Amino acid sequence: MRAQDVYNRHEANCGIWQLVTGLDPRASWRRRHGSAWLGSPIAQLIRGAVIYIDAYQDRFHSRIAEDRILGEQGIRPILEGLFTMLNGELNGLDGGVLDGLLRDVSRAAGYDPETWEILEEVATS
Q: Which residues form the domain of 87?
């Protein structure tokens, strides 16, 4: 799984729900989250991590978590920091949605977001 796929799914979910305002009682919070996402600094930080994770995978054909320098000392502290930042001001973003997104991005990088252990690689067919 690529981190960009996770990120794109998140953006698509926010955009789709903007179109169905009034049809779903949860649409108003999704609309607010989607609108806040567009200019949010934390969204830009997450996007930067996603780009880096996938660029690493494209270049080295392995998950960044398996790299002891760029993974363990580079991207992992960034991801952990992004989780910490969810405790701060989110300017209309839904922290639960961002938590789920960061968990999926962490898994795409090769980490278990609960323990920060490297996940076993799943064979794809």
A: 3-109
18 located within any domain: yes
State residue 16's pLDDT score: 42
Cβ-in-10-Å burial (0-12, 13-18, 19+) of 34 comes to buried
Q: How far apart are CA 75 and CA 54, in angstroms?
A: 12
Q: Which helix (H) or strand (E) holds 103?
A: helix 95-109
Q: Count of domains in the chain? A: 1
Q: What is the CA radius of gyration of the chain?
A: 15
Note whether residue 115 is domain-resident.
no
CA pair distance 74, 2, nearest whole angstrom: 18
Chain segment 43-89, per-residue pLDDT in tens: 899 999 999 999 999 999 999 999 999 999 999 999 999 999 999 99
In a domain, 114, yes or no: no
